[in-house]
Amino acid sequence: EINVLKESKDKEWVLQNEKxxxxxxxxxxxxxxxxxxxxxxxxxxxxxxxIPVQLGPxxxxxxxxxxxxxxxxxxxxxxxSRITFDKNKIDPRPVxxxxxxxxxxxxxxxxTWESILQxx
Length: 120
Known about the structure:
By secondary structure, the chain is mainly β. 14% of the residues lie in helices and 38% in strands. It has one helix spanning 102-118, and strands spanning 3-5, 14-22, 25-36, 39-48, 67-72, 77-79, 99-101. The protein has a five-stranded antiparallel β-sheet, with no helix packed on it. The protein has a two-stranded parallel sheet with strand order 1-7. It is extended and about 60 Å long.
């Protein structure tokens, strides 16, 4: 079993002054605009700075100063419904065993397929 460390793509988030409570956490709003098929789309994230882990759904990670508890895309909204943890044990830089980069994963996949095709 391996973990693939996906590279964070820079998104130009604009931090807003708006806040709302999600569960027990005060979340801050951040927005960025992306262009898909020539149309501008707004992505809204509500993140909890109290949870100093730069993670979120899909490829939304590494850019905001807290865990994304809600993410709204044009046609889909992701919401965290429950969090249970020991607040004294949060590591802002989680370490995973058996972690490789996306490039290493692509190389490994290529070598595996080449081996499979050669042994047919």
